[in-house]
Amino acid sequence: MRNFLAFFRRFRVFLFFAFLQIIALSLHIRYLSFPKNQYLTTASAVTGKILEAENDVTKHFNLSKNNSALQQENIKLRTKIPESFYKVGRNLYKIEDTLYEQQFEYIPAIVINSSVTRRNNYFTIDVGTKQGIKREMGVFSDKGVVGVIHNVSEHYSVVKTVLTKDINIDVTIEPIGLFGFLKWDGHNPKKGSVTGISNDLKIKRWSRVVTKGGSGIFPKGMPVGKVYETLPVEGEPLWDVVVKFSENFRTLQRVYVIKNLLIDEQKALERRIPQDEEDEDL
Amino acid sequence: MNVILKNSIRFVVIILLQTLVFNQIEIGYGVHLMIQPLFIMLLPFETSVFTLMILSFSLGLIIDVFSNTYGLNASSLVLMAYLRPIIFKFYGPREGYDPLKEPSIFDMGSRWFLFTFGFLILIHHFWFFLVEIFRFDQFLLILQKTLFSVIISFILCVILQTFLIKKSKTK
What we know:
Strand order of the largest sheet of chain A: 1-2-5-4-3-12
Distance between the termini of chain A: 54 Å
Largest sheet of chain A: 6 strands, antiparallel, barrel
Strand content of chain B: under 5%
Radius of gyration of chain A: 23 Å
Structural class of chain A: alpha+beta
Largest interface: A-B, 38 and 34 residues
Number of strands of chain A: 12
Shape of chain A: globular
Largest sheet of chain B: none
Structural class of chain B: mainly alpha
Low-confidence stretches of chain B: none
Distance between the termini of chain B: 17 Å
Mean pLDDT of chain B: 86
Helix content of chain A: 25-40%
Shape of chain B: globular
Mean pLDDT of chain A: 79
Low-confidence stretches of chain A: 87-95
Number of strands of chain B: 0
Number of helices of chain B: 7
Oligomer: heterodimer
Order of helices and strands of chain B: HHHHHHH
């Protein structure tokens, strides 16, 4: 009996340890799959405020670089405004266009917290439900795709970047138009990979990788990166295409959130597709 | 200074340093700087293992909130707190620890600190990266990240002690 009590006493410490471990690990696993509780992330008001104050100081470190990037983008956009075109006919530009309906709107945002060295990297941005941000909206910068909104609060939101385990953005490799999914292996924040590309086609180095736009999160043809090399996958007729991202995520500060005005229509339509029995087994 | 007050200040300072400074530094080669094990290490010798675990759980959770790791830091710090008394017993002097001393590099000597803290920080980092990556085909990446991060975090913690603590007068 005395031995048993002594054993239990020793065991009690371990029980408490196991209890805390189970809480911590279950929180971790639950957050990875679905963020139920936004109060315990950087999207919450308190941590958001503190990180915003910190960003107020550190944002100046990359100021000149970011300014020139914005300038570049301005030049690009300036060439597209009506004033920079020679008017051939009077009715070339109409304000109420019936041929083109606005599908995507863009909301500017600033990255207030980021990481690139972890296995799953999240960015916190300074827009939230007040600006109309919802889960699963796309986020991009002037150079390319950044990620998808993962978690929203009133003033802040957390972006699941392309540097996470299962981001799975649908992309195409441009001249040949092959479809694949974007993945990241956790090694290098400059390179990702595209899976599901069949190896009977040759892929040229530095061919552009752009979004496919099938899920309605990103518009079609938004740049992701360029093909760096193609590696064979063992035992499968597939290429593992290594992509060099066009955006440098280390110094990223200014991003845009994509609001697809027609996403509800697309989703409602796709929901009517009858589910295949075989697909559910997969 | 009162022990509770002193450690509360350390608690806040370590959280601020870790979340606002060291979380933002990116060295490359998979190095991820973590100084929060230092807080658990520097708690007094007579702290019970339950207090250690509760403190490390709350410290870890607060840091998790700031860095979107959500439970990872809490888990690895609790593991470290659980092992601390065992390691201390293993490397301790035969007559037990002097309760007036602190488990720091100044009071206990660099050799003792290297063994105990080195071992604890190694366990902490290894567990952190193991749970974070959680793929056994990337075991080499886990080892690489652990090794590089441990070396730099350890050096950083030694430097930080000169700022965070004063030498005890009883030496």
